[in-house]
Amino acid sequence: MFKFITTGESHGPALTAVIEGLPAGLSLDIDLINADLARRQKGYGRGGRMKIECDRVEAYSGIRFGKTIGSPVTFVIHNRDWANWQDRMAPVGEPRGEKVTAPRPGHADLPGMLKYQREDIRDILERASARETAARVAVGAVAKQVLALVGIQVVSHVTNIGGVSVAADLLQRTNASDIMSLIQSSELACIDPQAENSMKEAIRNARDEGNSLGGIFEVIVTGVFPGLGSHIHWDRRLDSRLAGALMSIQAVKGVEIGDGFGYAGMPGSKAHDEIFYQQGTGYYRKTNHAGGIEGGISNGQDIVVRAVMKPIPTLMTPLLSVDICSKAPIKANTERSDVCAVTAAAVVGETMAAIVLAGAILEKFGGDSIDDFLQSVDAYRQRIRL
Ligand SMILES: Cc1cc2nc3c(=O)[nH]c(=O)nc-3n(C[C@H](O)[C@H](O)[C@H](O)COP(=O)(O)O)c2cc1C
Ligand SMILES: C=C(O[C@@H]1CC(C(=O)O)=C[C@@H](OP(=O)(O)O)[C@H]1O)C(=O)O
Predict the structure, then answer these.
(1) Which of 10, 96, 253, 255 has its CA 20 to 30 A from that of 218?
(2) Interface pTM (ipTM) of the complex?
(3) pTM
(4) Is 115 annotated as a binding residue?
(5) How far are the Cα atoms of 33, 50, 117, 249 from residue 38, in angstroms, in the given order?
(6) Do 234 and 240 form a contact (C-beta atoms < 8 A)?
(7) Which CATH number describes the domain made up of 3-384?
(8) For residue 212, which ligand has an atom nearest its CA?
(9) Is the CA virtual torsion 146, 186, 136, 215 positive or negative?
(10) Domain boundaries, the chain
(11) pLDDT tens-digit profile of 182-231?
């Protein structure tokens, strides 16, 4: 079974990712993994930490001479900032440094310290931090390399920041490959230069006020063939897996697939994608309201998923809180922070979608070696060529 675990604290020595269930013989391009790590570090509105880090993976297991050998793959990403935190984050020795006692509304601080019985909120915030997503992106980049072998690509872009949206008509007429090239030159991974200017202005204003912003990103998966996921059980549905995976990203608070929340205002006659058939090419649709999934199963159309990120909880003009020692009112903790991280979250969204798709495809076609896997995919594709 394809699965992974990440470890590491934000200001600890390193993050790790251990990936299990990759077929043997997969050629892994480490440069592609590092390129995605670099993309995750970008985005107008990110804080000082991204100037310190330069994320790169080091492979520790599961790969020989560039190819997987079937055993678990381990990647390590060193935290450069560790050099500045060795005293406060030492794995052994007496506690040093001031305790964090003013929980930030919106972060894991208060529920985490109650649950884990900690007196220093740092014990919670270090792991709650989205620094962990660097390790996930390394896993996602591997998943994308599995998907690429069968012609599946995953792209993401930002569609809204702080209420400023990409123009609706532009969104409708831009396909996934155009999106990939358009976002190359954008600091926010946004396809609409005009909207991007307004988004940047909104981020600047938020920063000046000691405030923060959230937004929406979209993930599109192309080249998908019908049959990934299943209607049989709730936890095999591709839509439920994608929603859960996207929702697992720190600060993501809503996910929609296809027309999503827009369905509420539509009659059935406008909501579904009529089915057509052409000899030679088979079944096809003229619309994609479903976002590529019907009955929890991919239907062969592009998969389209959007997620909303709440505004960053660490505010330089802090909200009210309560000191966890004295119980007296206090301003919430402030520390170095992003003002807006939707661009980075989009890359993480792309990652999580790729992980779900790679999991579904490896589950369906199995194979201990990459050749077995590809043969099985080919045989299935032949069968469904109707
Ligand atoms: C890429 C990324 C960067 C983030 N950067 C920050 C940050 O600098 N400061 C902060 O307070 N929260 C940041 N967050 C959000 C917190 O990690 C998140 O709000 C927190 O984990 C609690 O969110 P939850 O309620 O969704 O779990 C970031 C999230 C992501 C995805
Ligand atoms: C380190 C990353 O994001 C961090 C996510 C984060 C949080 O609370 O989620 C808080 C900030 O950490 P720091 O206090 O070290 O600046 C962000 O920089 C990263 O994305 O690599």
Answers:
(1) 10
(2) 0.98
(3) 0.97
(4) no
(5) 9, 10, 36, 18
(6) yes
(7) 3.60.150.10
(8) 1
(9) negative
(10) 3-384
(11) 999 999 999 999 999 999 999 999 999 999 999 999 999 999 999 999 99
